[in-house]
Specification:
Helix 1 crosses helix 6. This protein is an alpha+beta fold and about 290 residues long. The chain is globular. The chain has two domains: about 140 residues, N-terminal domain of MutM-like DNA repair proteins (Alpha-Beta Barrel), CATH 3.20.190.10; about 120 residues, Helicase, Ruva Protein, domain 3 (Orthogonal Bundle), CATH 1.10.8.50. The longest helix is centred in the last third of the chain and has 20 residues. The protein has six helices and eleven strands. The strands form three sheets. It has a five-stranded antiparallel sheet. Strands 1-6-7-5 form a four-stranded antiparallel sheet, with helices on one face. A two-stranded antiparallel sheet has the order 10-11. Helices cover about 25% and strands about 25% of the residues.
């Protein structure tokens, strides 16, 4: 599933073409792409056509494009395989194309945003904006915590939240109500970098360990952003259809049985919540 770096790469790629563009036409080819918009395709189209985008924002794994003249935004969650692609208006349909949004930009001319999704777990919606502190966010994002690269992220509140949880630290990192944007890949990488065993109870981490973990989370996410995210196959690409290359920099995730880059011990792979955890049993000893 695309995580914070991948969604941020998509958001930043959409921004120049979307902001200031007028939506001239919307085509919905598959209603399954509107699971987050229960009013259906006719309402979705009617609420977009004729509007303009006035921004491009993100929290965790959600991205949204606020609409002018309405306290609402086009919100996107990419699910497992969703793609937001920029294409010429006359470009042939993409494989697994679900929705196409035609734009008219005052400087860049005509362009289309294509939402393609092989596994149909992603969705678009027009969602009302609600007050969240000093900003407006889609109502579907209210339950989502801020992410560690957000300037408003509260390190102390995060430390206190860990102190109230006895579950494994990796489970807490994946809880989008505690901290958003971190998925399986970046949880494994951050815990490896911080030398913390994924099954360590969150409330047993010292303040120093939590600070170290947050620092490594930010380092890992920052490096992944610089390298365009992580692509293992063609399902995650940026708006131009290009893959990220952070997969070449992974130290733990996907390296089960391979030597740890730090100590040389075999990286261990264990089943975890219908997925896998990867860690070094020597570097990340369970206390």
């Amino acid at each position: 599933m695309p995580e914070l770096p991948e969604v941020e790469v998509v958001r930043s790629g959409l921004a120049p073409a979307a902001i200031g563009s007028r939506i001239s036409a919307v085509s919905v080819f598959d209603e399954r792409a509107l699971t987050r918009h229960p009013a259906g395709s006719a309402d979705f189209v009617a609420r977009l056509e004729g509007r303009s985008f006035r921004g491009a924002e993100r929290r965790g794994k959600f991205l949204w494009l606020p609409l002018d003249g309405a306290e609402a935004a086009l919100i996107a969650h990419l699910g497992m395989s969703g793609q937001m692609l920029l294409r010429a208006p006359e470009a042939p349909p993409e494989r697994h194309e679900r929705i196409r949004i035609h734009l008219e930009h005052p400087q860049h001319g005509h362009v289309a945003i294509v939402f393609a999704d092989q596994r149909t777990f992603g969705s678009l919606a027009v969602d009302p904006l609600v007050v969240d502190g000093d900003s407006l966010i889609p109502s579907q994002v209210v339950r989502i915590a801020r992410d560690p690269v957000d300037a408003a992220f509260d390190d102390l509140a995060f430390r206190e939240a860990l102190g109230r949880r006895g579950s494994a630290i990796k489970r807490v990192l994946l809880d989008q109500g505690v901290v958003s944007g971190i998925g399986n890949i970046y949880a494994d990488e951050s815990l490896w970098a911080a030398r913390i065993h994924p099954e360590t109870p969150a409330n047993q981490l010292s303040t120093v360990a939590v600070r170290r973990l947050l620092a490594e989370v930010r380092t890992v996410l920052g490096k992944a952003l610089a390298e365009g995210g992580t692509s293992f196959d063609a399902q995650y690409v940026n708006v131009n259809g290009e893959s990220g290359y952070f997969a070449h920099s992974l130290n733990a995730y996907g390296r089960g049985g391979e030597p740890c880059p730090r100590c040389g011990s075999p990286v261990r792979r264990e089943a975890f919540m219908n997925r896998s955890s990867h860690y070094c049993p020597r570097c990340q000893r369970r206390r």
